[in-house]
Every structure is written in structure tokens, then in C-alpha cells.
């Protein structure tokens, strides 16, 4: 069995590496895996039957906070979600037993942004309801995803693109990129349905790219072909299908039949 002292040693190793200017994320992740195995053999994880000391809870919370941030740095979404699910127990269920972490609202805000980026709006609101009203209104880390959700509901996509350059922390950039890419794909689908063709300059503006080169890279992924006149032409190879006539006689026959049935019932 891994002793508490061994876990503390691994914890110190993790903190030393994590606090470097350029930490080795793979090394941090390997250390985290070792610590997680040790934690399952002790009372670090909250249970209904056994109570751990406050010191153990604080160490466990600190480890999970590093785990959340390391997962973001490695772009590992499943790992982020697992660490965050455990960490919320310490933030919410043990809020009366532990002093507030300096990272608490930073990471809770990051989780809200994650839910938005995955289009899990119902879960976003559920998580938001767990937070104090004054925090939702005033905390920078929480206000940011709340404002983004409002922009989404309004359809103010331009404001979301602008918010990408005004994130409260660099750790928010990963999920902001996912969110803006999703929006671009949705806008692109609308463009294909609304226009027969569109100029590269107009498309660059509508999709909020900084240059036509970025726009063209996106267009290549979407398999849009740029003509010599500087326009993207949509559905060039697809002829519009003739609209099939409605089977008027068949519909009328069914309507009369239903009317007769209703008369019979009455």
C-alpha cells in the first residue's frame, strides 16, 4: 500500500515540476497517475463512511487542480472532465470544511466554458445554479462564460469572436477555440444554403477570419472551390432537384375519408 508520506513526496515532485516556467506536461501527467493510484487506497476521496483530515483534503484538492490544468495543457478533454468531476466535490460539498481555493472560480469558470464548447447548455445552467448569485455577477472567471452563453442565445456570434481576445486566463483559449470553430462551421453551413456564391472577402468577414489566407485554409477543409473571379461557388456540381408535385388527389381522398370517419364517431 502506498503510504501517506509517499503520496506527499510524489505531490512535492508534481508541484516542483508544475511550478516551472515550462513544465513537462507528460512528466506531470505520469506523476498524477501514480498519485491517483495512491489516493484510492487512502481517504483522500470524499466518502460517506470515512472522514479524512483537512490536510489530506487540501492536498487532494491541490492535486486535482493541477490535474485539471495539466489536462487542458495536453488538450485531453476526457481527462479534464474526470478531474473536474472529482474536484467539484471539494469545491461544493466540502466548502464548509475547507478554506476557499484561489483557483476555485478560475476552474469552475473553465468548466462552464467547456460545457458551452460542447453545446451542453442544460448542464451549463445546472452548474451555474450551484454558484452564489454575487459570484455569478461579479467574478471575472464566471462572468466570461455567462456572457458567452448570453451572446449565443442572442445570436451575437460576432461578440463571441471578439471575446476570444479578452479571456480571463490563457487556460480558456483551448475551449474558446473549440467554441469559435463550432460557430464558424454553423455559419458556413448557413452560407452554403443562403447563397449560390460569395466573394472571398465577404466570407472572410462573415466567418471572422483575420486574413483571406486563413479563410482559404478553412475553405479547403470545407471543399469549397475558389473561382478565378474571387468567388466561392456552392453546389456547383449539384443541380437543383425538381420539386416533386404533391399527390393532391391522394391527399384529398384521405381528407374525405377522415371526415367520414369523424361523422360516424359523432
From TrEMBL:
Keywords: DNA-binding, Proteasome. GO terms for cellular component: cytosol; nucleus; proteasome regulatory particle, lid subcomplex. One of its GO terms (biological process) is proteasome-mediated ubiquitin-dependent protein catabolic process. InterPro entries: 26S_Psome_Rpn12 (IPR006746), CSN8_PSD8_EIF3K (IPR033464), PCI_dom (IPR000717). Residues 78-247 form the PCI domain. The keyword DNA-binding applies. GO terms for molecular function: DNA binding. Belongs to the proteasome subunit S14 family. Component of the 19S proteasome regulatory particle complex. The 26S proteasome consists of a 20S core particle (CP) and two 19S regulatory subunits (RP). The regulatory particle is made of a lid composed of 9 subunits including PSMD8, a base containing 6 ATPases and few additional components. Interacts with DDI2. Interacts with TASOR. This is 26S proteasome non-ATPase regulatory subunit 8. It comes from Cinara cedri.
Amino acid at each position: 500500500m502506498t503510504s501517506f508520506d509517499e503520496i506527499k513526496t510524489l505531490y512535492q515532485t508534481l508541484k516542483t515540476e508544475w511550478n516551472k516556467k515550462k513544465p513537462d506536461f507528460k512528466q506531470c501527467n505520469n506523476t498524477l497517475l501514480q498519485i491517483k493510484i495512491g489516493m484510492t487506497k487512502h481517504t483522500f476521496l470524499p466518502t460517506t463512511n470515512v472522514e479524512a483530515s483537512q490536510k489530506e483534503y487540501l492536498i487532494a484538492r491541490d492535486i486535482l487542480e493541477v490535474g485539471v490544468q495539466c489536462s487542458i495543457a495536453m488538450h485531453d478533454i476526457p481527462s479534464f472532465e474526470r478531474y473536474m468531476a472529482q474536484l467539484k466535490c471539494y469545491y461544493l460539498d466540502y466548502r464548509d470544511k475547507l478554506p476557499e481555493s484561489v483557483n476555485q472560480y478560475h476552474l469552475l469558470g473553465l468548466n462552464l466554458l467547456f460545457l458551452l464548447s460542447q453545446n451542453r447548455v442544460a448542464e451549463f445552467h445546472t452548474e451555474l445554479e450551484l454558484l452564489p448569485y454575487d459570484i455569478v455577477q461579479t467574478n471575472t472567471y464566471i462572468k466570461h462564460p455567462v456572457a458567452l452563453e448570453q451572446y449565443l442565445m442572442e445570436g451575437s456570434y460576432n461578440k463571441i469572436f471578439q471575446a476570444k481576445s479578452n479571456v480571463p486566463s490563457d487556460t480558456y483559449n483551448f475551449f474558446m477555440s473549440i467554441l469559435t470553430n463550432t460557430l464558424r462551421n454553423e455559419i458556413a453551413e448557413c452560407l452554403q444554403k443562403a447563397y449560390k456564391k460569395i466573394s472571398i472577402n465577404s466570407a472572410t468577414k462573415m466567418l471572422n477570419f483575420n486574413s483571406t489566407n486563413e479563410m482559404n485554409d478553412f475553405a479547403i477543409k470545407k471543399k469549397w472551390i475558389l473561382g478565378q473571379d474571387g468567388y466561392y461557388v456552392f453546389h456547383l456540381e449539384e443541380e437543383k432537384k425538381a420539386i416533386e408535385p404533391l399527390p393532391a388527389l391522394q391527399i384529398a381522398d384521405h381528407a374525405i375519408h377522415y371526415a367520414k370517419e369523424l361523422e360516424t364517431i359523432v
